[in-house]
């Protein structure tokens, strides 16, 4: 694998390989010395055009656990913010010897431009681009579901037949998109539930069922209910009337949580708006995988960095 | 020791153990390679809800000298500043595998909440919480006093009978509070000198003498005179008339400095307002320990990180 | 060498030694593990009073490739921005055990003050001070010219007889000044071309020819044309009428680029204003050394850190 730009372009075999390597990486966390020498002498640049402390420190922890050197490059206050082109930034990082670039960018497609440009030979990982994709988030979600379902017997498996209901702001969510393609590739069945104003205009090509009624979706007994974070600015932009109304119709409140079938798990990419899209009881219950998702995020990102930067990297 | 939250809760034995380990750590700075492998594979997160470059880089230098990986997490511009709860932040850091969390927070008690919560198993070090405590500052001060008094024969000793006069904004100072409890535990006698407006309403439970007259306090010939930094915002809030007046009544100016008894040492936690609470002559004299305090800060923080994160850590 | 403060004070032998060591450092980038253990246990502080992400990450990459620990200290939001003196900052870094300090400061002469003060024993590298000097930029430029001219036979050589034309805002440019002194020391001949408003009042002591006519300078067939970045704020301050006018008279546009003699190389310190002082065709051509300059920057900075911080450092 040369780059990790989207889940849409991942084959089933590639996805399962990545999840299996992440299983090995998760074992490192249980060692006496939680560190592998694998990427010693490699340099990973976190190139963040948007603030995202959680994602940045997850990648930073992953890279350091593999003994890579990490350089944080926040675009704020840099020449980038003074209008330097992505091309010049990329060529600068290439010239400095970056082996991997983790990029978060407000423009959908920026990581693809970077990877396809020839400006830089480094492995590119998309850490979120506009409303497009956030592939490591979807991979950590799939990893988390697979582990909950199959435990130590997860290796080699997909998610065939697993039913996943994703609830919230589908229109703006790169997490929803990345999950959609990966879950479909792995054999799961996806249902989206959202306010009508927060569903894209054309979803005809999406391998998913779209609905508006969370109560009906819950009564269908999905294996997984994934709540998305609702951004305050959506409310201000009149996508829904107010937070109470949103919570009443599309929130996983205590009453809905109680009605979930006994085997269902509850996911959230974080950070949560407790009391808005998810109640504290749901967030903190045994069924919630919120903390596992964060821990698995480090393992999945170690796997991605390993695949892209180690000696085994695919030839150009 | 599981956490380092306050000096008030330290026993005399614990405090002396910590100071003695800091003596060992100070020796590392004289080595050819100033680095110990002790915390290799451990991750220390600097979780700073307030800016404090000096304290952050002191902990960062200490952790790196012990070969730990360091991740800086400034709450500004992060999801924390968008209202993420301390609980969710803590669980995120726990899930990412943080072994130690150094926390600076504007709210008194935040580190205690973190340590007592069960949200995270990491060792917590309070790097300053509101007006409450700043224990590593007090420990480095005690370490500095002990070294000045006893030199290489310091190990195992307390500060019995040492007289310490602390001057300035006692009302708002966590440094004053942490010093009070630790100095008392180690057997020293503490006098606070401050403008009446900058003394807490009820100090009846404090093992200290409170006074307002710096000249009388200096004529008493204390072993240690510790000047606190005066914040410009206190003046604006009318706690005292103006900086000239403050300096005239509560500053260690050249005249008062000349009257100090010959064995007295002068301390300041930094950064200093030269010409306000301390004159340059006092700050730069042989008696001043300002630079030693900074150097000893790294040693004391190495000791704290070692006690909390090494294999010898107390069981939960 | 104890400090690297300016190129004006470098002897020819010192400069060539530094460039030769940079040749060795450039070889490290081609190794399987791109890392030397040379500075293990040393601490390098990037002390930046001005933002400069490019320069900061170049030094950070250089220091990490030599296995030093790196601490980034941005003056923004620190006690420095609250008025702490350079003296107190320096003494703090000294006390924390900084072995090297890379300083960028808006005031011309600040690094010299730091180095000459006795406040800190660390090796000081000037990473840009006001309009004064930026020595590692000039060294990487000289390194780049030497490599283009002599390839693998560069070691030991100067730049005797090489003609270099530097174009743009000479008045404010520390890059221009550092290049002037170094190029002269190495035997090159320097011509400055600039708008009359952007030439210093008195250049009588400068070993350079000053001119205003870029077309004539290009027709003279220099070996090197170095375009300087033009700051938008100069335009606002009426140093020249507007960007179109600047570009028309002092920009390396496609027409001028086509008239360059066949052996000339085109340099730019970055970040470039494409279409203003340099056209994209010129910036991206085979003759452009822009990317080599960035790569060579890491090698030159490794050489400087090595000379200042390794065991071979000159005695005080």
Automatic annotation (TrEMBL), chains A, B, C:
InterPro entries: Asp/Orn_carbamoyltranf_P-bd, Asp/Orn_carbamoylTrfase, Asp/Orn_carbamoylTrfase_sf, Asp_carbamoyltransf, Asp_carbamoyltransf_Asp/Orn-bd
PROSITE patterns for the chain: CARBAMOYLTRANSFERASE
Pathway membership, UniProt: Pyrimidine metabolism; UMP biosynthesis via de novo pathway; (S)-dihydroorotate from bicarbonate: step 2/3
Domain Aspartate/ornithine carbamoyltransferase carbamoyl-P binding: 2-146
EC supergroup of this enzyme: transferase
Keywords: Pyrimidine biosynthesis, Transferase
GO biological process: 'de novo' pyrimidine nucleobase biosynthetic process; 'de novo' UMP biosynthetic process; amino acid metabolic process
Key word Ribonucleoprotein present: no
Keyword field contains Disulfide bond: no
Residues involved in L-aspartate binding: 82, 174, 229
GO MF, one annotated term: amino acid binding
Domain Aspartate/ornithine carbamoyltransferase Asp/Orn-binding, chain residue ranges per copy: 160-308
GO cellular component: cytosol
SUPFAM superfamilies associated with the record: Aspartate/ornithine carbamoyltransferase
EC identifiers of the protein: 2.1.3.2
Domain of life, per lineage: Bacteria
Family: Belongs to the aspartate/ornithine carbamoyltransferase superfamily. ATCase family.
Main function: Catalyzes the condensation of carbamoyl phosphate and aspartate to form carbamoyl aspartate and inorganic phosphate, the committed step in the de novo pyrimidine nucleotide biosynthesis pathway.
Assembly: Heterododecamer (2C3:3R2) of six catalytic PyrB chains organized as two trimers (C3), and six regulatory PyrI chains organized as three dimers (R2).
The name this protein goes by in its record: Aspartate carbamoyltransferase
Organism: Cryobacterium arcticum
């Amino acid at each position: 694998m040369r780059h990790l730009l989207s889940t849409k372009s991942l084959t089933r075999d590639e996805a399962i390989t990545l999840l299996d390597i992440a299983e090995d990486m998760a074992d490192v966390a249980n060692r006496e010395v939680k560190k592998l020498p694998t990427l010693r002498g490699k340099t990973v640049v976190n190139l963040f055009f948007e603030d995202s402390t959680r994602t940045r420190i997850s990648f930073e922890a992953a890279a350091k656990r593999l003994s890579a050197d990490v350089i944080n490059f926040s675009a704020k206050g840099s020449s980038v913010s003074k209008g330097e082109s992505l091309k010049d930034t990329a060529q600068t990082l290439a010239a400095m010897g970056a082996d991997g670039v983790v990029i978060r960018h407000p423009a959908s497609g920026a990581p693809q431009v970077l990877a396809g440009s020839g400006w830089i030979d480094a492995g590119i990982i998309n850490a979120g681009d506009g409303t497009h994709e956030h592939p490591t988030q979807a991979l950590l979600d799939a990893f988390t579901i697979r582990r909950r379902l199959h435990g130590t017997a997860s290796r080699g498996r997909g998610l065939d037949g697993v039913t996943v209901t994703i609830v919230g702001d589908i229109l703006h969510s790169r997490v929803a998109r990345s999950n959609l393609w990966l879950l479909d590739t792995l054999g799961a069945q996806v249902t989206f539930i959202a306010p009508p104003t927060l569903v894209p205009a054309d979803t005809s090509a999406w391998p998913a069922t779209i609905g508006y009624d969370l109560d009906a979706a819950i009564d269908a007994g999905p294996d997984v209910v994934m709540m998305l974070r609702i951004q305050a600015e959506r409310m201000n932009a009149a996508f829904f009337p107010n937070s109470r109304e949103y919570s009443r119709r599309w929130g996983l409140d205590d009453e809905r949580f109680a009605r979930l079938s006994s085997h269902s798990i509850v996911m959230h990419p974080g950070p949560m708006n407790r009391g808005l899209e998810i109640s504290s009881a749901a967030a903190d219950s045994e069924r919630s995988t919120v903390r596992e998702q964060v821990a698995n995020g480090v393992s999945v990102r170690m796997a991605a960095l390993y695949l892209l930067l180690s000696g085994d990297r695919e030839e150009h």
